[in-house]
Amino acid sequence: MQTTLTPIGRQILAMIISAASSNPKFAQVYWQKYLQPRRAGFHVVIERAKARQEIQTDVDSDLVFDIISGIMLYAMVFTPTSEPVSAYIRRAIGLILK
After folding, report:
1. Is the pTM of this model over 0.90?
2. What are the pLDDT tens digits along the chain (98 aa)?
């Protein structure tokens, strides 16, 4: 997240979104090589949190990953609040995993 919040990180993200929206093959490769491994890692983190009873056991890790990704994209493009983007995202995650 920290890399993505830099000006160059935002430019790279904009290029990735642009390329993925106009090139299905690029979108597929990006999904397989970048997003799926992160989603799998996130799943492990969520399962550990469930085992420690820190979050509800019925939490869908894939859906939470997708929601968090959407919130991050939204916050980086529109800056919806005066608080730092990282604080906004953490606050949103807290609501999701309540």
Report:
1. no
2. 566 767 888 888 889 999 999 999 999 999 999 999 999 999 999 999 999 999 999 999 999 999 988 988 888 778 778 888 888 888 988 888 87
Both structure tokens of 12: 């790279």
Helix (H) or strand (E) holding 90: helix 85-96
Terminal Cα-to-Cα distance of the chain (whole angstroms): 21
3-class DSSP state of 93: helix
Q: Which residues contact 86 (CB under 8 A, 6 or more apart)?
A: 1, 2, 5
CATH of the domain at 12: 1.10.357.10
Domain containing 46 equals 7-96
Of 61, 69, 60, whose CA–CA distance to 20 is shortest?
69
